[in-house]
Amino acid sequence: MLIENIKLCLTGLMANKIRTFLTMLGIIIGIAAMIAIMTVSDAMNKSVMSSMGSMGADKIEVFLTQKSYDDSTSREMKNSDYFNDRMFEELSNKFEGRITGIALSKSIGSSRVENGKLYANVDIRGLNPMALAGENLTILSGRSITEKDEEASAKVALVSDKYVQKIFQDDNASALGKEIEVLVDNKYYTYTIVGVYQYVDSGMTAGFSQEDISTIVYIPFSVAQMQVENGDLYDEFSVKASNGTDPASLSMEIQDYINTTFYQDNDAYESYSYSMKEQLKQMNAMLNTQKNAFMAIGAIALLVGGIGVMNIMIVSITERTREIGTRKALGATNNDIRIQFIIEAMMICLLGGMIGIIVGLSFGILATKVMGFQGSASVGGIVVCVLFSMAFGLFFGYYPANKAAKMNPIEALRYE
How many domains does the chain have? Predict the structure, then answer.
């Protein structure tokens, strides 16, 4: 009986192709919107979470913040407000065994390196050995910055393969031993390239021209200290929690220790810390909320499509009143009539949903490529959308089907 109803349904739909397609259109748009949103959102989520996850869930960031945001009490930072090496030494002793070390960095600034018509934008950044290890760089050619480079304050540099691609026409070997000269704040700095690392898109460059993306040039931390003013003062640093130590609780302990030990009498500034583990949780929650909001917008389009299906089913039943009367006269029960029209509504939504999935996947994958992300909709999400479209068919098809089932066969046969 079910197969017969499906065949009868398909025959009826094929007999009115244009009307069937226009009825499906609302479902197609709604499902396509949901699939496209799901594809783009999942790709963005994976990119952002991967980027943050690569920083290390056991990493704790510590920085300075004003105690009050009231303009009447805020002031510029003085040298005594900054973190310093003595604080780091005491912090290391206090949390010995619970942290693996302190990662420090100094930014020299941004610059544009030119070689004839070729150019590349760079950020010059000095990292101590622990901070450099935390970057998880993949060296493609040459070597990394070593402890000897740090101790000797050697003016060496690590550049990205994207930098080499722009300046040295993608020849990593030819870049080694060459000098990179940058102009920052009217001062020239020169470093010798000792290694090329693999550039990894953080996911934060979507919408930017690939030609203008700035990559990092890493130099020894000791060199950066000498080349910037107040090189022994810091407004931020990070630590890595030891194995078995909860980063979230350790983060609060570090914050409390620094504030009570070094900033209790400071009238304007205090430290604030957070763990990447907590940041990952918050970011994941925020991205999921954003995704759900977009999905809700897609669901509204699907709702409009469902109402369109109900409307056309009511019209169809009116047109087929005599057919319904004839079937009842030949012995069809109310339940048979009801099931026939419910299946017809579900088939409209199912076929519209399948077309919508194809359209949504196409637009979603195209959008992720344009934005520079990699991703696709999950199989589970696609299955849910298919079931969702069938459920819409059942929900919006029940009222017209029930109306058809309750028709008086004598009155239906008299209908003109």
Answer: 2
